[in-house]
Design brief:
The protein is built from 3 helices and 13 strands, in the order αββββββαββββαβββ. By secondary structure, it is of the alpha+beta class. The strands form 2 sheets. The chain has a 7-stranded mixed β-sheet with strand order 1-4-11-6-7-9-8. Strands 2, 3, 5, 10, 12 and 13 form a 6-stranded antiparallel β-sheet that branches.
Length: 261
């Protein structure tokens, strides 16, 4: 296996490792939750909420530190990155056609000045909300199947059929779909961009069905995981960011929104 090929595979894993371990079938750790285990329902500290799992991208990468903290009387997840990349993942088994709306909060105090997710060597983001989907691997082009097989052989992990990443970008306009330079099965959607909203909590709601159709040109399969990731390993930056609760919703007549609460 050539050095450049191995580097490409490791780089791809750096983007999808949060979902690579997400199960594609029901297991004791796979739950059909519309309300992902709330950060706000836990006491501050190192312990993760039920269902959330830590993951490490590589033994050669420093992990981002995640810790529940209290901010304005509410518990949220604090991410502290220092030339690091790792995240948290919550396995799921959820029908996006029934619950298409993904809602979350995040807060970014500063951008990663050198980051640019359109450039392979600068792919860092202060916040990422990652959603993985199941699908028929046999439908993929031969080149993609070979890549997936190679990653599985190299790492022992099965990559998800498709992955959407919602990111905060420096300059790329909101709603831009950024294709991964490693595989066509990863698409990054710019949910926020620029400095105007730094330092304050942002509420974000995305229709994952519409976003998936726009990104991949097909209907989405079952949602297999949701994850968060703050990474500065490519640009070497130091950064703090925060994540609030994550939940799925459905819409009713005239756009009325229903949640799992």
């Amino acid at each position: 296996m050539g050095r450049l090929w191995r580097a490409a595979v490791i780089a791809a894993l750096a983007l999808v490792a949060a979902c690579a371990t997400a199960p594609t079938e029901q297991t004791p750790d796979t739950v059909s939750l519309l309300q992902v285990a709330r950060f706000s329902g836990q006491p501050p500290g190192e312990a993760l909420p039920p269902g959330w799992q830590p993951w490490t991208l590589s033994a050669f990468k420093h992990p981002t530190r995640y810790r529940l903290v209290s901010r304005q009387g509410k518990t949220v997840m604090h991410a502290a990155a220092q030339s690091s990349a790792s995240g948290l993942v919550h396995p799921l088994a959820l029908d996006p056609g029934t619950w298409p709306l993904l809602h979350w909060q995040w807060k970014v105090d500063e951008l990663i000045h050198a980051a640019d997710n359109t450039q392979q060597h600068l792919e860092d983001a202060p916040v990422r909300l990652v959603v993985s989907f199941a699908g028929n691997m046999d439908k993929l082009p031969a080149r993609e199947r070979m890549f997936f097989d190679s990653v599985r052989i190299l790492t022992g992990q099965q990559l998800p059929y498709a992955t959407l990443m919602y990111i905060w970008e420096n300059r790329v306009p909101r709603e831009t779909v950024i294709p991964s330079r490693h595989t066509s099965r990863i698409r990054m959607i710019v949910a926020e961009s620029g400095r105007d909203r730094l330092g304050s909590w942002q509420e974000v709601t995305r229709n994952v069905v519409e976003d998936y159709r726009r990104a991949f040109g097909e209907e989405p399969g079952r949602i297999t995981a949701v994850g968060i990731m703050t990474d500065t390993d490519n640009t070497g930056g130091n950064l703090h960011a925060y994540y609030g609760d994550i939940l799925f919703r459905r819409t009713g007549p005239a756009g009325v929104t229903f949640s799992s609460n």
